[in-house]
Amino acid sequence: MGKVILITGGARSGKSTFAETLALEKQGKILYVATAKAIDEEMKDRIRRHQERRPDHWDTLEQYKGLQQVLPQRSKKYCGILLDCVTIMSTNIIFDDPAMLREEIPFEDMLRVEEALMEEIDAFISCFPELDCDLILVTNEVGLGLVPEYPLSRFYRDALGRVNQKLGQAADEVWMVISGIPVQIKGK
Predict the structure, then answer these.
(1) How many CB atoms are closer than 10 A to CB 134?
(2) What is the pTM of this model?
(3) What pLDDT, on a 0 to 100 scale, did the predictor assign at position 157?
(4) How is residue 36 annotated by DSSP?
(5) Which DSSP state fits 96?
(6) Cβ–Cβ < 8 Å for 177, 14
(7) Is 50 a catalytic residue?
(8) What is the domain extent for residue 35?
(9) Calpha distance 113→120 (Å, rounded)
(10) Bridge partners (DSSP) listed for residue 178
(11) Which of 46, 50, 162, 166 is catalytic?
């Protein structure tokens, strides 16, 4: 079984760069799991910049759901898997549900969608013991700011906080990157 490493921090804190550095230290074949959808020009530019930073010998899998069905088998071919990022993965799962696209979202729908998100995350976590290589996960710490004014924003912050808690508990190591400086908060 490989080690699970969770890297968290604020936006533009250096999380992805640190994760890529850890992956490069493995000096072998890496599977990069890209979870973003190119939905607008800003996201297309962000994806392009991430692609340019990656070495040519890394393989890319563009997927954000059902990872537990593909990663255990694929892990046999790699020294490491880098998933960037859990936040975008969770966002995509949340907004796959048409109810979340309405202007006013009933609380019951938010609860149902969060339950579906947690089921997907639990299924993902369940494959960790089956992985033959290390898994590096990048996520955003979204709960350090003010309490959001709007219900959807509060739902989003709370759901991602719960996702990060689950992943943090399942991880062997947890790092927080602050102003480009990685600080280990769990593990050796």
Answers:
(1) 22
(2) 0.93
(3) 96
(4) -
(5) T
(6) yes
(7) yes
(8) 4-186
(9) 11
(10) 181
(11) 50
